[in-house]
Design goal:
Strands 2, 4, 5, 6, 9, 10 and 11 form a seven-stranded mixed sheet that branches. This protein has a four-stranded antiparallel sheet with strand order 1-3-8-7, with no helix packed on it. A hairpin with a 6-residue loop joins strand 4 (37-43) and strand 5. The protein is an all-beta fold and 124 residues long. The protein has no helices and eleven strands. The chain is elongated and about 50 Å long. The termini are far apart. It has strands spanning 3-7, 10-12, 18-25, 37-43, 50-55, 62-64, 72-77, 82-87, 96-106, 109-114, 118-122.
Length: 124
């Protein structure tokens, strides 16, 4: 069983910063943490869940959704089994529940694991 637990959410004023952390524990039969591709998603009330950032195995490929480019930074620490999302210059429209996700590919099958989410509220 693979479990993901997010932390670091909270309330912040516009223009402020937060760092989210996701701790990954457990493993699949054929994968370790370093084998996971990792992502951050967010879902605002009444909106569809969207992918915010992606980082590949080894960290060589990183992708951001356009609204957060230049403001958010995703990183991973394979030694600590964690993935981070640094959020700077936060805007009211960044308010959402943020989720981390781990993906692994083995024997032709893609498997995804999700965290429970952490609330980020940007308000004056």
């Amino acid at each position: 069983q693979v479990q993901l637990v997010e932390s670091g959410g909270g309330q912040v004023q516009p223009g402020g910063s937060l760092r989210l952390s996701c701790a990954v524990s457990g493993s699949t039969s054929g994968s370790t943490f370093s084998d996971f591709a990792l992502s951050w998603y967010r879902q605002a009330p009444g909106e569809e869940r969207e992918r915010v950032a992606f980082i590949s195995r080894g960290g060589d490929s990183i992708v951001y959704t356009a609204p957060v480019k230049g403001r958010f930074t995703i990183s991973r620490d394979d030694g600590l089994h964690r993935v981070y999302l640094e959020m700077d210059s936060l805007k009211i429209e960044d308010t959402a529940v943020y989720y981390c996700k781990a993906d692994t590919f083995s024997d032709g099958v893609m498997t995804s694991f999700w965290g429970q989410g952490t609330q980020v509220t940007v308000s004056s």
